[in-house]
Amino acid sequence: ELPPLGFSDIIVQEALKLGILEVQKIELLEEELQRRDIELTNVRDPAYHHLQFFRTSPLALDLNNAALAHVHASEELRDNFRLSSLQAGYGLQQINVANTNFANTCQVNPVCQETDVYYRRIDGACNNLNNPIIGQARTTFQRLRPPQYSD
């Protein structure tokens, strides 16, 4: 187990602000590409046709933007504080953003009902009554072993 990194809520909040700015830059770029009618996808690609029929839900887009902001914030903390791969990969997961302005970007644990003992939910929530978020759709994956990337 890694010792806590000890970042103050203010440092975390500033990193998250920078992460959100990066997401906003991407959104502006996407809007500009659409305005100019520039397609970046290959119309012969099966994924292109799939997305013509199955649009990405607003919830999935919101989750993506929140996750992307957290990734950029993590990179900011990693680079500014020269964190090791283990500190960045596992230590940053220990940071609680509940005391920042970004608490609304955290996933809320589902509340299990009595019927969840007998019937499964379509989103996988409460399949494990002891840990109801395990297996739930649109949740983060926790690694069992550290990744081995070149960076």
UniProtKB/TrEMBL annotation:
SUPFAM superfamilies, per this entry? Heme-dependent peroxidases (SSF48113)
Q: List the keywords (alphabetical).
A: Glycoprotein, Oxidoreductase, Peroxidase, Secreted
Q: Where in the cell is it found?
A: Secreted
Transmembrane regions listed in the UniProt entry: none
Q: Which InterPro entries match?
A: Haem_peroxidase_animal, Haem_peroxidase_sf, Haem_peroxidase_sf_animal
**What are the protein's GO molecular function terms?**
heme binding; peroxidase activity
User: What Pfam families would the database entry show?
Assistant: An_peroxidase
Q: What biological-process GO terms show up in the record? A: response to oxidative stress
What span is annotated as the signal peptide, if there is one?
none
Example GO CC term: the record gives:
extracellular region
The identity of this protein, by name, is: Uncharacterized protein
State the organism of origin. Cherax quadricarinatus (Australian red claw crayfish)
